[in-house]
Amino acid sequence: MIWNLPNILTALRLLAAPMVAVMFLFFPRFYADWFALVLFVSAAVTDWFDGYLARAWKQQTKLGAMLDPIADKAMVVIALMVIIGFSSWKASLVLPATMILFREVFVSGLREYLGDVAGTLAVTKLAKWKTTLQMIAIAVLFSQGVFEHYSVTAGGLGWKLLLAEWSGRVGLWLLWIAAGLTLMTGWDYFRKALPHLKETV
Predict the structure, then answer these.
(1) Cα separations (Å) of 124 from 114, 119, 186?
(2) Where is coiled-coil annotated (predicted)?
(3) Which CATH class is domain 5-194?
């Protein structure tokens, strides 16, 4: 059956990706920050569950294999777009986000070009760690918006202000580390694809 539970979870994660941005169109900033954070974290958790259940229940399908990386990329790209938009285009955020987006587009293009031999670019363990770190960084950055609201309503004093400040710093550090891993995996995929890109005489 194509629409088994793992595939349904993957499809829901894919649908959740644009909803993260939609939250900021229909709700005040405070509620949008909360909804986006909860939605993103919930979707990120399903990224582990759908793969685990598919393997445990032997329900791996071609549909799931196709949708899973698309859902991951959609979540990361849309969430980064939202975060950058509300950061007033800070260079410290724009640069790692650009590195991540460039790699995702580049590798997707490689896979599309390679076609039948795209299996050469199978997902590696480092790439899985990269995706996990990206999602953690984005979740922490979303939490900054929540903590900032509380620090303002509390007069900007105490632990709430510290949480707002440190969630931004930690999220940014994690995003830079994720960007570094992203470029490393991108180079690894390009190196593996090189033999298939050589001109035949």
Answers:
(1) 17, 11, 11
(2) none
(3) mainly alpha
SS (H, E, C) the chain: CCCCHHHHHHHHHHHHHHHHHHHHHHCCHHHHHHHHHHHHHHHHHHHHHHHHHHHHCCCCCHHHHHHHHHHHHHHHHHHHHHHHHHCCCCHHHHHHHHHHHHHHHHHHHHHHHHHHHHHHHCCCHHHHHHHHHHHHHHHHHHHHHHHHHHHHHCCCCHHHHHHHHHHHHHHHHHHHHHHHHHHHHHHHHHHHHHHHCCCCC
Tens of pLDDT along the chain (201 residues) come to 578 888 899 999 999 999 999 999 999 888 899 999 999 999 999 888 888 888 888 888 888 888 888 999 999 999 999 999 888 888 999 999 999 999 999 998 888 888 776 666 777 888 889 999 999 999 999 998 888 776 555 554 566 677 778 888 999 999 999 999 999 999 998 998 888 887 655
Structural domain spans, the chain: 5-194
CA distance 54 to 126: 21
Structural contact between residues 57 and 9, judged by C-beta atoms closer than 8 angstroms: no
Which amino acid type is present at position 165?
Answer: E
Joined together, the tokens standing for residue 113 give 């070009």
